[in-house]
Amino acid sequence: MRSIIFANFLAKPTMRLGPTLHVDHDNVKFLGNLVLNLWDCGGQDAFMEAFFNSERSTTFSGVHVLIYVFDVDSHEHKKDVEQFRSCLKSIQDLSPDARVFCLIHKMDLIKNETDRMKLLERKRKELTEIAGNRQLTVFRTSIWDETLYKAWSEIVFQLVPNVNKLQEKLEKLCNLCGADEVVLFEKETFLVISDAISRKHQDVHRFEKISNIIKHYKLTCGKTQARFKSMEVKNSKFTAFVDLFTTNTYIMVIMSNPRIQSAAIQQNVKFAQPHFEQIIKSKV
Q1: What are phi and psi of 191, to 5 degrees?
Q2: pTM of the entire predicted model
Q3: Cα separation of 263 and 240, whole Å?
Q4: Which of the two ends of the chain, N or C, has the fewest CB atoms closer than 10 A to its terminal CB?
Q5: Signed CA dihedral, 166, 171, 176, 177: sign only
């Protein structure tokens, strides 16, 4: 999972990776000036026991975000729940302000969509009751579809400084351009940072699908020692272009009005770029 989002792995090659043993530490730069200090903790019993006892203070102190992963293929539900309770207790004691996210992972193993939704709602209800007064967010995920990008995009969205101001300016740019949608992607991970929508779309996962497509295309470009910078797609119903925007973001603009020329939109985007660069670099 971590390799797909932060190390540009495709889903299939991750099958060759071994399980996390003890703790894997990674410092990942995000949007240039935001450093994500990732601790990937192994789920084997011996490691979990150490996390809650001898290494409790080291593991749970100074935590900003806890992402707890439940495997739908697990046959030890009672133990999984008890470990989650212990995790919440440790977070409450040592990092009470941390945000908590739960990923119900490997949902692709459940073939029927109705059954997947029933399981998700059942787990959401169960975990919410366990959390009590602590707010938590539950996502369904799989490495084989867009749900993993959806979950991580919403998680990092809450960590981005000045995200409200960024959202406000993006909405103004969308209205100024007469665009249907304007979306900001982080440059390296292609996770969605912010979006502005003036026209509703039926596919709620479209941004994550685009993230996946562009990331695959970037990897293909890399194999030929070429760099991806921009692309434009046009048909009778819409025009879409993706281009490098600020130092650490790409921008995507979608237009369905045939009277609006993409060259005019690109000029507006060019003029807006310095303002967004300043917002993203600011930590206040």
Answers
A1: -75, 150
A2: 0.75
A3: 12
A4: C
A5: positive
